[in-house]
Design goal:
By secondary structure, this protein is an alpha/beta fold. About 35% of the residues lie in helices and about 15% in strands. α1 crosses α2, α2 runs antiparallel to α8 and α3 runs parallel beside α4. Bound molecules: S-adenosylmethionine (SAM). S-adenosylmethionine binds next to α1, α3 and β2. This is S-adenosyl methyltransferase.
């Protein structure tokens, strides 16, 4: 079947402009991407040969952080920059632990939203909102309108692998602060993003490559990421490479954790 006739391809999408959502899907072995995304992915892999492991480690962190939040009593999640559904989506992890969990996904990318809508059509406890997470008022209004989340109870806010697409000019600390202020005490933040701290040369090359996509990248230092957790108490082990955040059984395949490329952590709203 031609790509343009499949059900997950939204009307009017610009197939010539590669997106981070479809690049990430390709790196994770998914099939919801187009020729220009795959071409970008090959340039990304040349710039950062560990890109596939980085994506898998990030996904693994996401899973472990959701389970951690569930162990800490949370039953509702707002997943900002949720991406194209793949193996181990937040609602699957959450519903496996407790079918009563509620999940609202948010992404601005057309394929991510179309595929999520297809997957969640008959699921009463999970939905997706198509919106730009850098406009918190719109995202929060649309999230409230779904009726799925109770903002008087703690919410697990997830920002996994997404804030490296938010430039300083958009004031990321203020954006995160708006979500923090909208959620009840005891809410948690799961956060991960690319850094230059671990592999600076590769990161610089990746930034160059991504300038040709619709999602240019802005790596941050560990100190800058810690500052984004303002108003949250960062839980142990702090802000660390994804592979080192509550690993299941030691390190995945014994690799150097710095090759995880992305720094991650979880905070509890004070
Ligand atoms: C690398 S994927 C991460 C997916 C998932 N959170 C994970 O960690 O596996 C980043 C996602 O963030 C989305 N994204 C980037 N900037 C965004 C914005 N301003 N508003 C909403 N979504 C955004 C992209 O479309 C993409 O689907």
């Amino acid at each position: 079947m031609a790509e343009s006739t499949t059900t997950w391809v939204p009307e009017g999408i610009d197939l010539d402009r590669p997106s981070a959502a479809r690049l990430y899907d390709y790196l994770l072995g998914g099939g919801h991407n187009f020729a220009h995304d795959r071409e970008l992915a090959h340039r990304f892999l040349k710039a950062q040969p560990h890109a596939r492991e980085i994506a898998r480690h990030n996904r693994s962190f996401l899973r472990r952080s959701v389970l951690f939040m569930i162990e800490n009593g949370l039953r509702q999640f707002l997943d900002l920059g949720s991406g194209i559904p793949t193996v181990g989506n937040v609602h699957e992890i959450a519903h496996n632990a407790d079918p009563a969990c509620r999940v609202v996904y948010v992404d601005y990318e057309e394929v991510a939203c179309a595929h999520s809508n297809l997957m969640l059509a008959s699921n009463p406890n999970a939905t997706i909102v198509q919106a730009d997470l850098t406009v918190p008022e719109e995202v929060l209004a649309a999230t409230r309108a779904t009726g799925l989340l109770d903002f008087d109870q703690p919410i697990g806010v997830i920002m996994a692998g997404v804030f490296h697409f938010v430039p300083d000019a958009k004031e990321p600390a203020k954006i995160i602060g708006r979500y923090r202020d909208a959620t009840a005490d005891g809410s948690m933040l799961s956060f991960s993003q690319f850094t230059r701290d671990l592999m600076p040369e590769e990161m610089d090359r990746v930034v160059e490559v991504m300038k040709s996509s619709r999602d240019p990248m802005f790596p941050r230092t560990r100190e800058e990421i810690i500052a984004l957790f303002d108003g949250y108490e960062i839980v142990e082990p702090g802000i660390v490479p994804t592979a080192l955040w509550h690993p299941d059984t030691g390190l995945d395949d014994g690799q150097d954790p710095n090759l995880a490329g992305i720094l991650a952590g979880v905070g509890r709203k004070r």
